[in-house]
């Protein structure tokens, strides 16, 4: 597998609000030649979350989405502000519980698992389906 | 020139439903600390006749028998949901006043004259619901007091969009005529009795009374209310940076407490927590009050309520000073022979941390100057370690009993909602 180096990650706790590194004290001597080039470290929150007010984390359970790279116990990043389209991975409420599946709008609307061992969920007449939000990322820990 | 009041519908009960799709149509109630009283009801629970503030034990059997679902309050979760809603509102308009955990005023003055404000309100409602799952109602009117009236009209007229705007004189007068005077913002039960005696029964009659007469007969505050009802703006959108004016920490006890040996450590815990909050607000207080009371629901037992305020010569936010004052206040109000059900501490008369006024006379209990000490304690307690003061109850915060709390869905890795 080929790997690209993206950057350094901060050793501190990952929080959304960083104190920028360049907020340094003023020294009377020669300024650090690096101070113009300092950038804030890579922030996983910023990478994974676009709209924090509308984003919730949900724990995936089971193997039904293995084909999309979602393993059992993965943490799903669910953004309620992104309108799902055909083929979006969504978290939906059906029969009183949450499921994570791929949304198919055609030929017939259904919630499709990404694992051939699981059947698709078709929405029957009178059955209530509520799409809670679009899954924008899954975090699998090893 | 309009203001809007955004109000989250049955906020705590609505929050409990967000991650429980199985409870979509189930009646829900949320109980106060220690599961004492009902503090929030879903629409279905309201329709069942569950009143606001009723003691839980009085309605418990009937409510559960009819399939209702009950929750202990989960303020960590409600607080996070509230922040999300308020953040979204702040993204819409430059001036937002967060009035309480579930209410906010928005200033819409910057919108252009011919802008469809009602449509804007509907858009906000839709977006907040979609993004957070929290249903809100919105009242739009020229003044704060009138936005409350507009909000009441949503309920009275059963408006399906849950957004109501009153702008024209005709609309405003009609809404006022349908509002009993005790439903007007700032008019309490006592005041409305006085107004009733003066033949003022609804908000329109109040609005049509000469404000100068009201000022003379009642108060400047009520005069301002009258002017606001007439569409004259007296209360502005306040920014939320204004400092708090008092800090209260109080709890009902899970089990009755009868002796000072048990009660004092509990009050010390409250004092420590209140002092922490005070330092967080960067304030110092010069009044420390303590109250204790027995349960008003145990009819056959002797009742006692005690309240005492200790004045401090020099303002402080040092836990050690506040502990000493709390003890001084508690000892004279404690009587043995009673079963205490609730106690609390109130810090008041604030001055900012940096300003300092020395007392004219030397105070024998002059506050500790060593503010670094408290800073270190706060830093230690922010992590896993807990540094206690000798008079505290180290076992638990207070003998609380809360058995039906929902998970901290949005703030704890181990309590996330689950999807199959």
From TrEMBL, chain A:
Peptidase S24/S26A/S26B/S26C domain span: 20-135
Record flagged with keyword Hydrolase: yes
Pfam family, one: Peptidase_S24
Keywords: Autocatalytic cleavage, DNA damage, DNA repair, Hydrolase, SOS response
GO molecular function term, any single one: DNA binding
InterPro entries: LexA-like, LexA/Signal_pep-like_sf, LexA_repressor, Peptidase_S24_LexA, Peptidase_S24_S26A/B/C
Gene Ontology biological process terms from the UniProt entry: DNA repair; regulation of DNA-templated transcription; SOS response
Keyword hit for Magnesium: no
UniProt similarity note: Belongs to the peptidase S24 family.
NCBIfam families listed in its UniProt record: PRK10276.1
Protein name: Protein SamA
Species whose genome carries this gene: SAR86 cluster bacterium SAR86B
């Amino acid at each position: 597998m080929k790997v690209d180096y993206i950057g350094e990650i901060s050793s501190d706790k990952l929080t959304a609000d960083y104190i920028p590194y360049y907020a340094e004290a003023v020294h009377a001597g020669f300024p650090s030649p690096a101070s113009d080039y300092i950038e804030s470290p890579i922030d996983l929150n910023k990478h994974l979350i676009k709209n924090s007010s509308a984003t919730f984390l949900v724990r995936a359970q089971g193997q039904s989405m293995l084909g999309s790279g979602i393993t059992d116990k993965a943490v799903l990043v669910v953004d309620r502000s992104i309108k799902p389209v055909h083929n979006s991975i969504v978290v939906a409420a059906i029969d009183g519980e949450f499921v994570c599946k791929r949304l198919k709008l055609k030929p017939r609307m259904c919630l499709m698992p990404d694992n051939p061992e699981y059947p698709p969920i078709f929405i029957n007449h009178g059955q209530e389906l509520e799409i809670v939000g679009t899954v924008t990322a899954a975090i699998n820990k090893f | 020139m309009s203001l809007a009041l955004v109000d989250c519908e049955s906020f705590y009960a609505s929050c409990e439903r967000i991650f429980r799709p199985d409870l979509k149509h189930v009646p829900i109630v949320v109980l106060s600390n220690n599961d004492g009283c009902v503090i929030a009801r879903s629409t279905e629970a309201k329709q069942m006749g569950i009143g606001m503030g009723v003691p839980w034990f009085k309605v418990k059997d009937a409510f559960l028998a009819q399939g209702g679902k009950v929750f202990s309050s989960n303020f960590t979760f409600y607080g996070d949901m509230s922040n999300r809603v308020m953040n979204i509102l702040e993204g819409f308009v430059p001036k937002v006043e967060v009035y309480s955990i579930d209410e906010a005023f928005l200033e819409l003055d910057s919108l252009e004259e011919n802008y469809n404000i009602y449509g804007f309100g509907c858009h906000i409602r839709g977006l907040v619901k979609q993004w957070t799952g929290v249903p809100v109602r919105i009242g739009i009117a020229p003044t704060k007091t009138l936005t409350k009236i507009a909000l009441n009209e949503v309920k009275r007229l059963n408006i399906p969009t849950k957004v109501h705007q009153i702008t024209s004189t005709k609309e405003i007068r009609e809404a006022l005529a349908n509002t009993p005077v005790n439903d007007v913002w700032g008019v309490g039960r006592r005041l409305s009795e006085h107004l009733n005696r003066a033949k003022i029964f609804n908000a329109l009659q109040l609005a049509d009374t000469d404000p100068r007469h009201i000022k003379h007969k009642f108060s400047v505050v009520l005069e301002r209310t009258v002017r606001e009802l007439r569409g004259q703006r007296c209360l502005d959108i306040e920014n939320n940076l204004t400092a708090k004016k008092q800090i209260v920490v109080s709890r009902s006890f899970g089990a009755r407490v009868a002796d000072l040996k048990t009660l004092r450590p509990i009050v010390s815990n409250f004092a420590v927590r209140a002092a922490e909050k005070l330092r967080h607000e960067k304030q110092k207080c010069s009044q420390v009050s303590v109250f204790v009371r027995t349960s008003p629901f145990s009819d056959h037992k002797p009742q006692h309520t005690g309240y005492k305020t200790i004045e401090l010569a020099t303002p402080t936010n040092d836990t050690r000073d506040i502990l000493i004052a709390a003890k001084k206040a508690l000892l004279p109000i404690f009587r043995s022979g009673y079963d205490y059900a609730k106690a609390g501490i109130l810090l008041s008369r604030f001055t900012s941390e940096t300003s300092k006024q020395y007392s004219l006379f030397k105070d024998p209990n002059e506050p500790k100057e060593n503010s670094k000490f408290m800073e270190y304690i706060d830093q230690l307690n922010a992590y896993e370690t807990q540094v206690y003061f000798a008079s505290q109850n180290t076992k638990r915060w207070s003998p609380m009993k809360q058995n039906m709390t929902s998970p901290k869905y949005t703030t704890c890795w181990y309590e996330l909602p689950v999807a199959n």
